[in-house]
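Format notes (please read before filing issues)

Several people have asked whether sequences and structure tokens are stored in separate files. They are not. Every record keeps both together, in the order shown below: the sequence lines, then the token lines. Line labels are part of the format and must not be stripped during preprocessing.
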Amino acid sequence: MRDTINSALKQAMRDKDASRLSTLRLINAAIKDREIAARGEGREESVSEDEVLAILGKMVKQRQESARAYEEGNRLDLAERERAEILIIEEYLPRQLGEAEVQKVVAEAIAETGADSIRDMGKVMGALKAKYTGQIDFGAVGPMVKAALTGG
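Then the structure lines:
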């Protein structure tokens, strides 16, 4: 993943694509920040693929929130720039699951973990995160899992 991002960064430099270049640099900086934090925790290995996906997912979510705030403030130019960054970041994320697919994987995770009450929600979320990091918006999945476990 890092190699892919770095080669895309070099290509953006060659193409003189300023907006793509700045977004890729932001991605690289976020990954490097995570590596530094990991070293501070005593881990020597580099950031895992799952951590990179989590970083990219977080970056997309931040930009979506910013774009909404800019639209509410009637700053459509800034909202558009945030949306352009989202498109670039999403190129490096796996395909997002659709709502029907999310419902299906939630049901599968509940069955796999043997969850039968709200107390098992952590197990279910852990199973989903292990398999679908970067493919699911976990903020939206939490209520789905809760509803499935409480029968709501």
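For reference, the curators noted about this record: DSSP finds seven helices and no strands in the chain. The CA atoms of residues 15 and 121 lie 47 Å apart.
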